Amino acid sequence: SSPDTEGVSPELEKAGLLNKTKIAEGGRKLRKNWNPSWVVLVGNSLVFFKDPKSQNPDSWPGNSRPESSVDLRGAQLQWADDLSSRKNVFKLRTITGNEFLLQSETESLIREWYRTIQNVIDRLVSL
Ligand code: I3S
């Protein structure tokens, strides 16, 4: 890392490839568009990348910047197999009314993501 960012990078909690679609923006429904996304849980945020090579915050803003990011404070998670024909789907709703579906073919993997994100949300409530 460069000297001016050393020591201030938030802790990287988890990173991996999930399928993602945004289904609402500010409470307004959007048309689904599933895409693979490199998802990084870091500090209070879930950060989405197109490029799996940029998960390390020390490389930001390197050759691939985040596509978008989500503030987990006040966010809500729920299993959402009713919202998709896909299996292993959960919905993440931000406090601003943005909604995402995240999905993996691997049940254990999506469960681990759910648990880890929920832990961060819970931790933020008590701060
Ligand atoms: O919940 P929906 O609207 O049935 O979701 C499906 C559609 O959005 C479809 O797109 P178009 O209707 O724009 O062609 C997507 O291709 C599907 O992937 C969506 O359903 P799943 O079950 O994959 O979430």
UniProtKB/TrEMBL annotation:
Coiled coil stretches, renumbered: none
Domain PH: 11-122
Protein name (record): Rho GTPase activating protein 9
Organism: Cyprinus carpio (Common carp)
The organism's taxonomic lineage, starting at the top: Eukaryota, Metazoa, Chordata, Craniata, Vertebrata
Residues shown, of full length: 28 to 154 of 371
